[in-house]
Each structure stands twice: as structure tokens, then as C-alpha cells.
Design a protein that fits this description.
By secondary structure, this protein is an alpha/beta fold. Helix content is 44%, strand content 15%. The chain has 18 helices and 18 strands. The chain has helices at residues 13-23, 34-43, 60-70, 84-92, 105-119, 145-157, 174-184, 202-210, 227-230, 246-258, 284-289, 295-301, 317-333, 341-349, 355-369, 403-417, 422-429, 433-449; strands at 2-7, 26-31, 48-52, 54-55, 58-59, 74-79, 97-100, 136-137, 140-141, 164-167, 192-196, 235-239, 260-261, 270-271, 275-280, 304-307, 338-339, 374-375. The chain has a five-stranded parallel beta sheet with strand order 2-1-3-6-7, with helices on both faces. It is globular and about 75 Å long.
Length: 450
């Protein structure tokens, strides 16, 4: 259970707020002064500090300053005497919000939900933007307008039971968005399972999703419980859902509509309670229009569609993410390396076609190549396959090009660069080998039809 330290000397207000915080699943310790709060901090490190500005022996800002310097505690400042100066000072000290009395209880509950989410990802708690504001949302790092809009959508849909369809390019972090939705939902205490439909042979997808009985096919030597049953009560994340074989799309639709499944070779229907979050790096509407993906399944999955923005549309986030990935390398190796300003400029110039996944892998290589405490451009590996100084004409695109056209040129150019190696192409683009094969077969069929 998450621990909260509430510091407020109002004998009526403090117990009422403590009850609300407890209702949200927190353990609460209440103190009425700085001295009592400091004594409590010797005994435990709270996940959340709720502190009043005006206290009998000082101000809440003093305590916030002490806590933010030494602990991974999230802070909310409360006051009955709001002013611009104190609000600015509080925000500079990395508080997650500044609340005035009487409290907006709905807003407080939303903040507590965010605290609970962030507590599951302590490595991102300290991420801040240039203005000193929090720059993380659970497992997601970013402070750009595009990401803040994404966080708002996640908060809106997470508490509901609506199916979510995440659309976005490979490497944008759709899996992390799915996890954030689950962790903010009422299903957060139940399983979260992820299955990549594009990484399995078509003959295995049905067995992995729905399970099978012993003897149901050659090699089925025992009963197998599928993802739907194992995720019952929780959330199932179906990545690359548009790669699912057409014959299984009917079975998936039936389970979504009835809440019941039949294991392969089984005779008895089994009730399951699963929320599905699906993801695709393709345009599902184009697929369904072309007959590659069932329209009824598309409508069932896309109760709340969300587009996850590519890194090139996330102004300022490249530096944040680079610092975050470098900090993880520092913790792992016990170092304190930093990025030079010239290196940050170089990182910001590149368009990152592989998105956050490419940046993550790039920073891991940069760390290994550098022996200095400051990573300079001389320490950096080569940017992408065609370098930093301009796009390969084969992969260039213009406004008006469809995502499918751009994707095709990128796959074909990458395949050509790796001299026909489909495996290296898949690894470079951050997609499954099966997806590469599927796309190439699709392009061949389109050429034959043309």
C-alpha cells in the first residue's frame, strides 16, 4: 500500500482529507507541524507528501525543499492563501500540483490516481522539463504538447471498460500506453498480459489466445490455458492485431461480444472477463476497407481510438528521453555521464524514423562507445542508416503521401540496404520478421494485380 504523509494543522480539514486519501487506497500518516513531519520522515519514506503552506513552525515550502532534495516522494502543496509567488516557487521545487482550499475533490482524486501510477515507475519520477514541471506519466516520458494530450486521453479512458485501439508507427511506445491505461484502470490489481499477434506463426495464434485441450491437434500433449483465460479480470494487450489471420478474427470477435471462449478441441464454453487494448502500426480503416481486416472487429476494437505520436512530432522530448535512457545506463553501471550541448543539438537534428525504440537503442550504443564523463558528438554511433545529413531519396516523403506508401518505401529501402536480409530489416525497423514477410507478400500481390 502506498504511504502518504499529510502535514496540516487544521483539525477539521486534515482528517477529512485523510479519509479521502485512504479511500483511494493510500495509508495515511497525519502530522500538524514541520517538527512532527520531520520526525515521521525519519521512520519512513512516503510515496506522497501532502503539505499545507502555512504551518505553526514554518512553511510547507521548507519541507518540500528538504524532501525533493533527498527522496523520491511526490509532492502536492495545499494552501488557503494562494499567491502567484508561492505557486511559482512550489512548481520550481517539483511539486506535481498546487491546490487551494476549499479543495476540488474531483481534482484531488485524479491527482492521487496519477501518484499511484507514478509510484509504479520510480525511475521516471524525477524526470522534469525545462520549466521544472514533471515530465513523466507512469512508464511514459515526455512533456511535449502532443504527449500531454495523450496523457489526457489515457486518463479519460482508463477508468472505463471501453476497448481501446492504439495506432502509431513502430517504436512509438504503444505497449507503454497500454500498460499505463491498465495501471490507471479498476483492473490494475489483476493481470496485464501482452501478446504480439505478428510474432507468432498463424497456426499458433489461436492456441495462444484461446488455449487448447490435450490431444486437440498433433503435438498437443497437455491442456494449454490461453491468454484470455490467464488475463481474466485484467487486461489483454494485443499488439499488431491487424496481423491476425482472418480465420481467427471471427473467433476473437465472438469472445469480445459474448465474453465466452471455446478452447481448441474443447466442448465447453468458458466465461472470461477481459478488457482488450489492441495496437497496430498500420491504418486499420484502410485494411478493413480492403478486406484484410474485418470491419465488425475493427468497430468492436476501436471503441476509443488513440493515435500515439511519433517522436518527430514531440518537440523537446528527444532531449528528455535521451537523458532518461542515459540515466538508466548510469544507474546500471554506477557512472554519472552527461550529454554535451553539442550532442543534444545533434540528437535534435535527427528525425528518428524508428522513434523512441531507435533512440533507446542508440543511447545504449552511445554509452558503450564513450569512455568520457561527457558524451560528445565524437562518441556517438552513426545516426540511422543514411546518416544525419539528409534522407535517402528512396525513403523521402511529401505531404499527401499515405502512411502505407511511406511504410513501403522505408521497408524496401531498408531491405535493399541490408542486401535482402529480412531478419536484419525487421530488427532495424523494430517490427517482427513475420510482419516483414506479410508486407512483402502484400506488395508482390499489389504489383501482380497492377
Amino acid at each position: 500500500m502506498l504511504r502518504t504523509l499529510l502535514v496540516d494543522d487544521d483539525e477539521t480539514f486534515a482528517p477529512a482529507v485523510a479519509d479521502i486519501v485512504r479511500q483511494e487506497g493510500f495509508d495515511v500518516t497525519v502530522t500538524g507541524s514541520l517538527a512532527q513531519a520531520r520526525e515521521a520522515l525519519r521512520d519512513f519514506e512516503p510515496d506522497l507528501l501532502l503539505v499545507d503552506l502555512a504551518l505553526p513552525d514554518g512553511t510547507g515550502l521548507e519541507l518540500i525543499r528538504e524532501v525533493t532534495e533527498s527522496l523520491n516522494t511526490q509532492v502536492i502543496l495545499i494552501t488557503g492563501y494562494a499567491s502567484v509567488d508561492t505557486a511559482i516557487e512550489a512548481l520550481r521545487m517539483r511539486t506535481i500540483d498546487y491546490l487551494t482550499k476549499p479543495l476540488d475533490l474531483g481534482h484531488l482524486r485524479r491527482l492521487l490516481t496519477r501518484v499511484r501510477l507514478q509510484a509504479l515507475h520510480p525511475d521516471t519520477v524525477r524526470m522534469i522539463d525545462d520549466a521544472g514541471n514533471p515530465a513523466a506519466f507512469g512508464p511514459l516520458v515526455g512533456a511535449s504538447p502532443a504527449m500531454r494530450d495523450l496523457y489526457t486521453l489515457i486518463e479519460k479512458v482508463a477508468p472505463t471498460e471501453t476497448s481501446v485501439l492504439l495506432c502509431g508507427e513502430s517504436g512509438t511506445g504503444k505497449d507503454l500506453v497500454g500498460r499505463a491505461i491498465h495501471e490507471l484502470s479498476n483492473r490494475r490489481d489483476h493481470p496485464y498480459l501482452a501478446l504480439n499477434c505478428g510474432a507468432l506463426a498463424p497456426s499458433l495464434v489461436g492456441s495462444e489466445l484461446f488455449g487448447h485441450e490435450k490431444g486437440s491437434f498433433t503435438g498437443a500433449n497437455r491442456q494449454h490455458i490461453g491468454y484470455f483465460e490467464r488475463a481474466s479480470g485484467g487486461t489483454l494487450f494485443l499488439d499488431e492485431v491487424t496481423e491476425m489471420p482472418s480465420e481467427l478474427q471471427v473467433n476473437l470477435l465472438r469472445v469480445l461480444e459474448t465474453g465466452k471462449l471455446l478452447r481448441l478441441g474443447g466442448r465447453r464454453e468458458i466465461a472470461v472477463d477481459v478488457r482488450v487494448i489492441a495496437a497496430t502500426n498500420r491504418n486499420p480503416q484502410t485494411l478493413s476497407a480492403g478486406g484484410g481486416f474485418r470491419k465488425d472487429l475493427f468497430f468492436r476494437l476501436s471503441g476509443f481510438p488513440i493515435t500515439v505520436p511519433p517522436l518527430r512530432q514531440r518537440l523537446g522530448d528527444t532531449e528528455l528521453l535521451a537523458r532518461y535512457f542515459l540515466s538508466r545506463q548510469n544507474r546500471e553501471h554506477g557512472t554519472r555521464r552527461i550529454l554535451s550541448s553539442q550532442t543534444i543539438d545533434r540528437l535534435n537534428q535527427y528525425h528518428w524514423p524508428g522513434n523512441v525504440r531507435e533512440l533507446k537503442n542508440f543511447m545504449a550504443r552511445a554509452y558503450l562507445l564513450s569512455e568520457a564523463d561527457e558524451l560528445s558528438p565524437a562518441n556517438l554511433p552513426q545516426f540511422g542508416d543514411s546518416g544525419l545529413d539528409g534522407a535517402d531519396p528512396a525513403t523521402a516523403f511529401a505531404i499527401g503521401d499515405t502512411l502505407e506508401d511511406v511504410e513501403r518505401r522505408l521497408i524496401e529501402a531498408t531491405l535493399d540496404y541490408y542486401q535482402g536480409s529480412k531478419r536484419r530489416t525487421a530488427q532495424s525497423l523494430g517490427i517482427s520478421l513475420k510482419t516483414v514477410y506479410n508486407r512483402l507478400n502484400q506488395y508482390k500481390n499489389e504489383s501482380d494485380c497492377g
